[in-house]
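Researcher: Quick sanity check before group meeting.
Model: Go ahead. Protein one:
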Amino acid sequence: MDRFNQPLSLDYIDGNQVSPIYEKYDPNGEYMHFYKLGVPSWKIVSLDLEGVPINAHHGAQHYNPVTVAHYALELYSVMVRGGAPADTEDKFRRVIDWCVRTQNASGGWEFSFDHMFFKGRVQFLKAPWYSALSQGMMISALTRARNVMCLDWQAVIRKSLEVITTDVSKGGVKRIAFGECPFYEEYPTAPASYVLNGFMFCLLGLFDGWKATEDRCFEQAYQDGIDSLERLLPMYDLGDGSSYDLTHITSRVEGPNKARHSYHRLHIQLLSTLSEIENGRFSRVVSRWDAYLRGNKLNTN
């Protein structure tokens, strides 16, 4: 058997099949497995008077665009699966109203708090800052909202691309990784962090934006990112798991930041989704990373 290509299998939890592999993606359908997120039950989350999530962060309350987008995509996914509570659509509308209302003139959703992503490897992120993760997920939520409510979604979605395609040095989230690979940063840190899951979430948002608008700029940004993903994936493959980021390379501090179990599952879910969109382009990596999840390792020399 090819040691780099492992057969896919299912995990079992309490007798039920549980797999991180996502086999079919619909830009107008549910967003992966987000219907079961339960954002309002998260320990650090409360809902404001409009029903929009607020995060507790270092003793203060802040709107986190990532959490808001998670909740919007959860509500939409619950709706399209059927059998949703009667007030689900109203909740979704109120969250989307917040998203449209708070998008700034640059097309972004700023983070209003400082953040340290990885102490000892990168510098402190000072507010305000943007994230490719939240930009991509907001696009995915807004493209779906057009199926439920009337809004000037074309203008909002097109404007959201600006932050993604603007270089980090100019306040955006785009970098050219290692001199040749366009990359959209979840954390626009110095030095670069190259967080894998945030990059892939952004690619899904770009795909959704492309399919919703048929805009060549969205298509180009998506295709550039997909090509980068293919070229960079070997750097994240640890032979028995995946790396959360590439700070061990950019900061020159030895030792990869190995993704914990839940994040490795997320990597597989996101990569399998993108692979399905790309007609199996990443299927070998998906199968190998799925095997790592079950304790398999690459053979040594």
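Researcher: Fine. The other one?
Model: Protein two, sequence then structure:
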Amino acid sequence: MISLLLLAGITLGKSSLVIAEEQTNSFVDVPETHRYYHSIQALSSDNIIHGFPIGTFLPDRPVNRVETLKIILESFPQELQAQGDEPIFNDVDMTAWYFPYIEQAIHANIAQGYEDNTFRPGNTINLAEALKMIIEAIDSNDQIQTTTFEINPALDVPMDSWFAKYVQYGLNQGMVYLNSDQNLQPSNPVTRGQLTDLIYRLKYPNYYSGVVSYGNATYYADKFNGKGTASGEKFDQSKFTAAHRTLPFGTLLRVTNTRTNESIEVTVNDRGPYSDHALIDLSSSAFDAIGHLGSGIIPIEIEVIYKENEPQ
């Protein structure tokens, strides 16, 4: 269980997005190759999230209910309601730092307690719960009620489940996307980094597209260094570039090693690969950043990025 006292060190505030790449790394445990690096860096630059006194963010640790509410409510500010005179849950101290967030969440229907009149503030949350909390926080006009349901019956989201509408909204908005098995795994615990990414994707929808594909990546042999590419550029092994069969030249991609969850951003400037065993060819420097050259091939996820439209 995550210490509630430790979580009290997370503070949030004003909004002024700064492109992550122009900042020094905000947290010692979030390297540039971390899957959620950009989302964490951007929301940190925006003063929405802060880490712990020792300079860490702990992005891979499961997030609990009160930590989630604090981050959501201060990412999408709402006026906190005045404290009442009576406890609202048996297990919630009215003097606790997180009490105003629980009170506001209940008032705004962002979260509910349990039948035994507990809130269980230290419990971790899963993807379905996180989607509900985030979407309800921004859905003041009940737009979620008008969401068109198109969920594939084969997906691991039952149409009659309480969270189906939130999943559909998340899919529509590019907050979430299917994994390589074409599922979402809504019962999986959400990490601190993943929560940040879900919020970033909704708050700033013009960066990540939610357009994702899966396959393998290989890399260019050194003999191609300095040679021409299909775009007319000279190939440079030291640059983070890629060859793709169909995507337009200049397209930015986030490439993630699905074994290690390490990610990089690359620019498409060539055509290929021309064999069935790979979806993309990377420069050796890009490949080496998320894999080992000796392996020759790595399983990857690629997502189209709309970086040029990021708000300033």
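Researcher: One line on it for the slide.
Model: The longest strand covers residues 208-219.
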